[in-house]
Target: Pyrroline-5-carboxylate reductase catalytic N-terminal domain-containing protein
Amino acid sequence: MKDDLFKNNIGIIGAGHIGQALALSLLEKKYPRENIQLSYNGSIFTFSDLYDNNLDELIHNNSDIVKSCSIIILSVPPQNFRQIGEFGLDEDVLVISFMAGISIDTIKRQTGSNNVVRIIPTGPGTIRNYNAIAGVYPENKKANTIFKLLEIDYYVLDNENQMKYMVLAGCLPAVYSVVDAQLDENKEAIGKIAEEFSDFIEISSKAEKLVPKSNKEEFVKEVSTPGGVTEAIINSLSEGKSLYDSLIKGLERNEELS
Ligand SMILES: NC(=O)c1ccc[n+]([C@@H]2O[C@H](COP(=O)([O-])OP(=O)(O)OC[C@H]3O[C@@H](n4cnc5c(N)ncnc54)[C@H](OP(=O)(O)O)[C@@H]3O)[C@@H](O)[C@H]2O)c1
Model:
């Protein structure tokens, strides 16, 4: 199964934190280097990271990637997705989107693929450490092979609407770096969200274990995409709002990005 997977050219559009974590972990798992392509948006800081990670040789432009890859990973910020334009993919090209807030229908329309899977994982560090937790929708055999290769602990969701709660779950390791998960008020906040998405309590307790022991500030910075949902929750917490209100702010930000 792994050998079949490794024959696919895999293109990662958006080689930022998530994109580079995926590329590095795939390479560590022996995914053939010549079958991985990456793109970014021209930032010199990103180029410098790619160079330091020995990934600079894998850089391609988006149009090369959409022409030559049978698996496309989307890891650009949601607000940058539209600017990429029409992809013109064949219907069966597998598109795996890591973007929060962009629906499967929108991705299908813009890419031309009819084979789109969404995944919301905990941060890039957890992908690198092979302890990411994620929500996935819908189930897809080929995508599952990749998630298993990367040792992602994934939950297949009942419907796409649950993705929005998974977006919150993906933020929890950062959230628990700045608030105490064991406070009664915070447990209640998680319980309230679980009324809408029952896996939330289990995922929340797994997320608590993903808080790093040191360098918490750096960790929070790393997982907070500018303008993204984690940033909205962390900003709200730092304004003194409760965890529940801050999670609701996160849901609202997710809605704005959709
Ligand atoms: N970070 C997390 O913990 C997390 C968790 C779950 C889901 N996500 C989702 O994952 C996605 C990526 O997050 P991230 O934290 O990795 O963000 P990031 O570090 O900002 O990386 C995004 C990358 O996309 C590139 N990009 C932007 N526009 C592009 C374009 N038109 N063509 C090609 N590349 C383009 C950027 O290039 P430049 O560097 O040149 O600007 C950047 O390298 C987001 O959609 C986010 O919602 C993130």
About this structure: The pocket of NAP is lined by residues 13-19, 39-43, 46, 62, 75-78, 80, 83-84, 98-100, 120-121, 123-124, 170, 223, 225, 228 (CB under 6 Å). Residues 163-178 form the longest helix (16 residues). The radius of gyration is 18 Å. The mean pLDDT is 94.
